[in-house]
Amino acid sequence: MKDLTPLEQMILGAIWSLEDEAYGVFIKKRVAELSGRDLMYGTLYNALSQLVRKELIGKSSGEPTPERGGRRKIFYHLTPEGREAFREAFQVQRVFWRRLAALGKVLER
Amino acid sequence: MTRQAQLPIERPEPRLLPPRPASRLLARFTRYDEEFAVRGDLAEEYAERVRESGRRRAARWYWRQAVFALGSYLRISIRSGADMLRNFVKVAFRNMVRYKLYSLINLFGLAAGLALGLFVVLYVRYELSFDRQNERPEDVYRIVARQIGNVYQGTDWWACSPAYLAETMKREYPEVELACRVSPHGGVFRNGDKVFRESAAFFVDPDFLKIFRIPVLSGAPPDALAEPFTIWVTMDTARKYFGPENPVGKILLFNNRFPFRVAGLVAAAPKPSHFRYDFIASLSSFPEILGGEEGRQSLRRKGSLDFTTYVRLRRGADPAGLEARLSELSSRSDENGERRNRYALQPLLRIHLYSKFNFDLAEDNSDIRTVYLLSALGFVILLVACFNFVNLFTARSATRAREIGVRKVLGSERWDLRLQFFGEAFLFTVLASFSAVLLVRLLLPLFNTLVGRTIDFSLLFRPGTLLAGGAIVLFVAIVSGAYPAFLLSSWSPVPILKGAAPSGGGKSSALRNVMVCVQFAASIALLACTFIIGAQMKYIREKDLGFARDHIVTLRVGDEALVKNAAAFREEALKNPGVLDFAGSDVLPSYIGGGGARNQDDGRAIVFYRARGDERFPEVYGMTLLAGRKFSPDYPADEQDSVLINEAAVRALGWKDPIGRRLRIDGMSSAVRIIGVVRDFHYHPLSLPVMPIWIGLNRAKNNYFSIKISSANMTATLKHLESVWKKFSPNYPFDFTFMDERLGRMYSAEKRFAKMFVAFSFLAAFLACLGLVGLSAFTAERRMKEIGIRRILGASVPGVAAFLARGFLKWVAVAALAAFPIAYFASRSWLNRFAYRIALGWAPFLAALGLALVLAFVSVVVQSWRASASDPVRCLRNE
User: Does the N terminus or the C terminus of chain A have fewer Cβ atoms within 10 A?
Assistant: First the structure.
């Protein structure tokens, strides 16, 4: 299984949480909500294209809307592989933190 | 986008529209925009931001996002470009495998063209690299002299200079750092029973080794060269004379009289150099060798040009200024007419390619014109090979029209397709260039014999050559990729997918025909030139030179005792019935030196060449007497003052009846008497007109023997001659040369040139045919249905084949029209190098056209035949 970068994890998380609503603007906002990071759109597209290439997400196009200047939305969804990768990344992190805690180390703010 | 424009949508208020220039910028990257809905996302958030924080801030935000997005687009496209490339390579290989014949022709043709291109690059680089390995080549000069009026072999420039020059220059001109004299003196060397005649023994001043940076490998340092009778030998020479022994300290006997002490081993001349030597001997031994006082005298003569002089100037010295002062030097004295001499400095780096001097130390100087010509030929043939590639590539394009259509529909942009074709061309070229390098590796020995050089394969991997080779490969890839790239990518996909013929078909087939035309024009021109060169070479070989040249054994006599014993030798030699005649002379008809003479009436100077021999000399060489008489023992006075002259001399003198008249000859105290006139004979190469010559009688001092032998039993006769030689001159090797061999050597450069030309033009013709084979096979395939219908309607197989061939042959004929003038002017300018040449008729041109037509016909008809002979039903059924 390919390792996911933190950015990819965040984006996968955003898409997963947005369910049917996952298109550019919402993904960017959800990432900001979840992590406090304001992404550039360029960075976002870059990561999305990478995830598409790895077949972790798929895309479909929606209907055009007036506020978008009459342009379509592109919706993203997790593929089964994407879901699996995301779950695994999450699992790894959880185990990692739990084991750290078991060693008596707690990261303080 | 078009689809979207058709949708009825309400427009948002103008205030909320993003800044137009930025959005337009994004719109240009259509695919990016569409893939990610970039502008949609940005517009949506922009509107929100305008409401929240105002237009200005929102606009700034939009700009930043847009510019950054483009940056990241670049990264994405490079990544996906790699994907695309993989697909292209895959498709290219599939195509290659599917169309084996085309691919093979393409690859092989291109490889052959490239190999030739590489050969030319190698050759040019080699020719330009002569003497460059010298430490400071640009500071080294050779002194050349012009003896006004002393014309020899068409020029009065000489590559040699008087003996005193080197020393005087070094002493009097501060900018001369080093100076040396060189005399390549031939002779016989002996160590015990190992005796060889050598021609490359250099007698030099000590500075020679410094100027040319020639390292002494072992033994005494170069300064020991000042000592008389010391000699350095190269490794090969040492092995030849001493085997595995260490030669240092041993004695080599020169001309069986002068013992030279081997002072050390010297490296061979760095390659490529304009000279080559086997021995380096001290020049201080020269006076002794030349015979004591006489020799010393000759070294002091200022008027005679006896040595090759090289100088090295100090860094930054002005050669032009030095040259000006050199002429002062010659005008100072009038000894032996030195005032006639003009000296010039010839840069070392120009010796190999720009020398046209008499008595050049260098034996195989080239000519810059040959270098240019070869480069041009290489370029033309490379172009022919490129055209092949383009031709086949575009011809095949129709079969790929569908692929292009599909790619376009799937969203390939025009540049993607162009890139694909460039890439495919590049892939082909790279494959071809690997094969070309392999071909060069295999054929280099052949090429070396062709051009008479020893080019090393490793020269290919020098940075300069690699760069040039890389440039050629790139050039070929771009030239051959450009046309298909631009034509094919411009096709509109819809008709192609519907099965219509590609729109550019008509135009491109016209272009294909033009290219076939150019290819054949080049081939026909080259073939015509080849025939003309061949005819001239045959003319040279077979022309009646005015004297006999077959079955004459020539011997150079080094042994003074034998020179005096010539009469006895003659008697002994003639005992064998195979020996027909014997003559002694001081020169041979292949090598006759010049001298001046004056018209008795008006004192006008005439360039005369001179030869002296015994009574049999004119007989052995079969000279034809036109007036007067030949030498005869009946006239004892003949030896003092009688000469024969040739027709050219009579013409130059302007005398109606020259017999019995007297002629004053420079350097002789009394005038000579003309006793006979012989027919003109060509003692110079045919590039030069026959010059006036006088032949004197000389019974005693003849250094050359010419022996006419019968053509039967030659081996036995030669054995006999050898045994006689051994009897009279046991210390000298029996080194004989046939006269026709010596004469043939005069034309070695021309012969090489001719061979090279033949090879090149046949390669060009071959490549052109190769292209035609591919093209006609292709045409036949495309017109399969037409052929099927014609056959069903009753056309015969040959009829259809002829019909298909006609289209191509027409273009070959057109090509001939373009080729003839080019070939005519080119070959005329080449023929003008010869004073005696063939007349330029129609025959070689028609022969070239005929050959081209036959070649074209065969290559077309074979392919067409195959197509028309196939079952018409099968052709028509496949849909």
Answer: C
In angstroms, rounded to a whole number, what is the distance separating the alpha carbons of residues B501 and B785? 14
Q: Is the pLDDT of residue B180 over 90?
A: yes
Kindly state the helix (H) or strand (E) to which residue B433 belongs, with its residue range: helix B414-451
The answer to whether the bond into B798 is cis (omega within 30° of 0) is: no
Chain B nearest C-alpha distance from A10 (Å): 18
Most A CBs within 10 Å: which of B16, B60, B72, B75, as the mutation test of the A interface?
Answer: B72
Closest CA to A4 of B404, B359, B431, A15: A15
What phi, psi does A55 have (nearest 5°)? 60, 35
Per-residue confidence band for B503, with pLDDT thresholds at 50, 70 and 90 = very low
CA distance A79 to chain B (A): 18
Using only C-alpha atoms, chain B has a radius of gyration, in whole angstroms, of 38
Of B43, B64, B75, the CB nearest to A68: B43
Strand ranges in B591-633 using DSSP code E only, listed in sequence order: 594-598, 605-613, 625-628
Nearest to B316 by CA among B442, B174, B418, B189: B174
Q: Establish if B64 touches chain A: CB-CB under 8 angstroms.
A: yes
Closest CA–CA distance from residue A88 to any residue of chain B (Å): 26
The answer to whether B593 touches B609, Cβ cutoff 8 Å, is yes
pLDDT at site B8? 46
A43 and chain B in contact, CB less than 8 A: yes
The DSSP annotation for B785-832 comes to HHHHHHHHTT--HHHHHHHHHHHHHHHHHHHHHHHHHHHHHHHHHHHT
Chain A positions touching B42 (Cβ under 8 A) are 41
Binary contact (B36, A69; C-beta < 8 A):
no
Angle CA(B51)–CA(B52)–CA(B57) in degrees, nearest 5? Answer: 95
- Which chain A residues are Cβ-neighbours of B79 within 8 angstroms? 49-50, 53
User: Would you state the structure tokens that stand for residue B320, as one six-digit string?
Assistant: 């032009």
Residue B505: what pLDDT? 47
Q: What is the pLDDT of residue B600?
A: 59
Copy the structure tokens of residue B468: 């040039």
State ipTM.
0.85
Which residue, among B478, B500, B507, has the nearest Cα to B418 in the 3D structure? B478
Closest Cβ opposite residue A45 in set B11, B38, B64: B38
**CB environment B74-91: b (16+ within 10 A), e (fewer):** eebeeeeeeeeeeebeeb
pLDDT at A3 exceeding the cut of 80: no
The Cα B174–Cα B311 span in angstroms is 12
The total number of residues written for chain A in this structure: 109
Tell me the three state secondary structure of residue B276. Answer: coil
Q: Given CB atoms, is B65 within the 8 Å cutoff of chain A?
A: yes
**CB proximity B75 to A under 8 Å:** yes
* Predicted TM-score (pTM) of this structure: 0.74
The CA distance from A29 to the nearest CA of chain B, in Å, is 10
Read off the DSSP letter of residue B835. S
pLDDT of residue B106: 81
Minimum distance, in Å, between the CA of residue A71 and any CA atom of chain B: 5
Answer yes or no: is pLDDT of B501 > 60: no
One-character DSSP codes across B90-137: HHHHHHHHHTHHHHHHHHHHHHHHHHHHHHHHHHHHHHHTTTTTSSSG
Mean of per-residue pLDDT scores for chain A: 85
Q: Is the pLDDT of residue B723 over 90?
A: yes
